[in-house]
Write a structure and sequence with these properties.
By secondary structure, the protein is of the alpha+beta class. It has a single domain, classed as Alpha-Beta Plaits (2-Layer Sandwich). It contains three helices and three strands. It has a three-stranded antiparallel sheet, covered by helices on one side. The protein is globular and about 35 Å long. The mean pLDDT is about 95.
Length: about 90
Amino acid sequence: METSNIIVENLKCGGCANTIKNRLQSLMGVFSVEVDKENSAIKIDHNHSISRNEIIVQLEKLGYPEENTDNSIVLKAKSYLSCAIGRMSD
């Protein structure tokens, strides 16, 4: 088992955290996901069938790019949509 700790951009609230957690936990090989909203940190326990890079790609698709990478207006807009979806699933 591996643990990946990733700091992301655009993580603002519980809605964002719900979307991230739900999406990552649905990936094959992911055992658990913890989201720390205050520090924009995500801890993922996973096996070798999924790489850290694959997880980062999934986060970026949701609008949450890794810290210190390109955070375009498109990604910011995606994060607002992901946030809204996460709030509805509360």
